[in-house]
Amino acid sequence: MGLLSKLLGGMAPVDVMRADLFMEYHPQNTHTRTSTGKAAVQWVSLGSHDPNVRPFLVALLYARILAAHAETRTKLFELIDVISKRNVSDEGRTGFSFPEWMLHVGFGVPDQKIWPWVLVDSHRALSEPKLYNATLLAFPKSRYFGINLKMAFGQERIFAPASALIAITSYAESTDQKGRYELAVLLWQVNEFYGSPDRVRIGSESKALAAATTAIRTHDLRTPKNKRVATDSAFLSVGFSHANVPNSQRLPSPEITLFAKKNPRTGKHCPWLPTHSHSHHTPPHSGCQVPFLLPGV
Question: In this structure, are strands 36-45 and 118-119 parallel, antiparallel, or unpaired?
Fold first, then answer.
């Protein structure tokens, strides 16, 4: 039994979904004026066919990259902090359009562009892409989600931070305004779990996701000052530098699938019950697509 499995409950994890990130990057050199990146994301269903699990994988990939790459940690944290709060504030209308991000290389080498990248529909449009595999794992006993990330060798200073932005952008472009709002709240709460990039630690991504989903479900959201707000009947306070919050910023509805419903048969939370109909996606033995619970339940 692996160390991660032991730490997270001692039961073999269940593969839920995988994101295959195909990335092709051409660095700036003396012959080219700018660096360019193209990417394609393929979502592969494993233990669940419900696209509502994708935000969990996106959030875990983001948190893993934060922990693993100190050089770009602060900048990546700040980018996600700003854009997630904007999307929470306007309920997903802003979208996830990140500003240009250049990496200073030094030693006479031209600065390289971490962002933006061009997202294409298929990896077949890329000539020689590098591949990152991010697999969402569920640990039934501990009720935690985890991630298994396999990264192609080379150019990690560019590819690692870019992979998080690529996954976020891919999901945001594939969903609607409500989906972007849900993702924004989740990413915001992951950042609030850490408080600052200086507090990010290796192996903390599962705890960050569990804390985020618990805060969302209990309507007890963390603010940037590490104070908790009781929000049962209040509005969603993003607490940036203001105390005033528009009345339209209400809490996510309990009916939003990202934030879990209860299985009507068992009374337990199922993270992937479909929005409208349970019957055609639900195995008869459990009432859930896979027999485990959302983090923090």
Answer: parallel
